[in-house]
Amino acid sequence: MSRAFTCKRSLTPRRTTSKVEYSDTGWQGMGLTQFTDTPHSHSSKALLVVAVLAALISVSAPCQINECWAQYSYALQHLGKSGMCIALRTYHQCTRNSASDCTGNIHYHSVRRMIESSLKKNNCSMTGKFFTGNVPKGYSHKSVEETPQECTFSPKAGYGHCGLFGDPHLRTFTNKYQTCKVRGAWPLIDNEYLTVQVTNDPVGKDSSATATSKLTVIIKKHEECGSDRYITYQAQTNNLPNRFQNGRSVFGYENSVRLVEVVEGRHIEIHIRYIDTTILVRQIGHYFTFSLQTPLELVQKMLNKTMDSGLNLCIKGCPKSEIIDYKHFLTKKNARLKSATDSATVTNQMTREQAIQKCKNTNVVDFYFDSCVFDLMTTGDSNFTQAANSAQQDILRFIPQVWGTFKNRTSLPVYVQTHKNSSNPLCISQIFYWIILLCTYLRLLTR
Length: 447
Fold this sequence. Notes:
The chain has helices at residues 41-59, 65-79, 84-97, 106-121, 296-306, 313-316, 326-330, 352-361, 366-379, 383-398, 413-423, 428-446; strands at residues 8-15, 20-28, 159-165, 169-171, 177-180, 184-190, 194-202, 210-219, 231-236, 250-251, 257-263, 267-272, 277-284, 287-295, 323-324, 337-338, 345-346. By secondary structure, it is an alpha+beta fold.
């Protein structure tokens, strides 16, 4: 009798008074082509139904993770802080006992990791006393579904901001505004939680002006709230992915690490909740802008670490040898930047007056206005006006109070006046020359 798994035309038994007949039911799934109806068949079928129902009930048994949390919460409330290890061991044992019902529950596995981490942090042994009290009916406790305190950072001193945009222009955590060359790969941030590195390429042939063509973010291991492996995000010109390198967009407890695509191929944001940090990356034209907000407590930790060693542009700013005196550059109508090899100068791509007018129309002010004018004069690429505008919007979003420090300047009178004074024939050295000459003449007269 064939048992092959194929479709075949089969016959279905029909009970008559004396025998079992067969009726044609058309195409059916495979199985036995005939069977004998015995007195035991009904009981066999009943047992089969019961077994299937039992299996379904077993599979659909709810994960009791909230009950475990209630037990832990009640134990901690009853025992106090001195009973932390007992409460944690009880919590751990309860979740282990629920393992079979919670196998496919991602939240359950995150909780398990957090408990094990808390046991280590509190130097608790896995063996010892357990809390044996019963949780009273109606006991009020916060659900374990709520974000644990250790996975949510609440800053006490406000936020710091670092931004890099354009040709490139840098705003540091310490409120320095700089225009730099920084050609090649440079670290912006490197702390115990994440690393951000940019690669800057020349914006034109033989030009010393550069812009960011590649950006890498590495979020370091954080088993309790993030990932037990490094998370990497990398963007290159004309490729701003909406996923981390491994194809995922979220990690950790309650999606503590999250990548959001705001505008396809143009604007992404990375949110790291357990350090309350937000990273913005935009592609404007061929180049990237970067902006980051992080608590001042973390900024201070970075300041303490990088004062003695290491290079961290968001903290230390650009090295002196890499800084471009953009103010002096803007005083000259026909200023020229030295080439990348310092052997020649690069012809301006736009006049200063044209650049000023375009930047005024973009509604950027102060440093962002200066940066806009500088970029247009050195590249002629109008995309840099949008880059300056986006950078200004970012800082106002992250640090709104900074608007009170802006002067709303959309011109270069201060720089131009400085240039005129320095160009006056009676400059300081010439004044000294005439004073010395006059003194010599007076001495001759008195002889």
